[in-house]
Amino acid sequence: MYIIIIFCHHLNDLFTFFYSILRYDHVSREHNNAREAVNNEFNQIKNEQLRRLEIISVAISSLQKLSKDNLEEVSKKDENFV
C-alpha cells in the first residue's frame, strides 16, 4: 500500500511538472506573438513617418526651387525695368 501512495505522489509530481512545461510553452508563445505584434506596429509607424518626412522634404525642395525661380524672374524684371 505504501508503494502505491509513493507512486501516486511521484505521478502527481510528474503531471505537475509536465503541466508547468506546457503552461510555460503557452505563455512563451503568447509573449513572442505579442512582441512580434509590437515590432510590426512600430515598423508601420516608423515607415509612415519616413514617408511623411520624404513628402515634406520634396515639398520644401519644390518651394526652394520655386523661390529661386521667382527671385531670378523678379531680378530680370528689375534689370529690364531699369
Count of the domains: 1
Alpha carbon gyration radius:
35 Å
Total of helices: 1
Could you state the order of secondary-structure elements as H and E?
H
Spatial separation of the terminal alpha carbons: 120 Å
Which structural class best describes the helix and strand composition? mainly alpha
Descriptive notes:
With 82 residues, this protein is an all-alpha fold. It has one domain. Helix content is 98%, strand content 0%. The chain contains one helix and no strands.
The gist of it:
With 82 residues, this protein is mostly helical. The chain has one helix at residues 2-81.
Features:
about 80 residues; mainly alpha
Topology overview:
Layout: H1 2-81
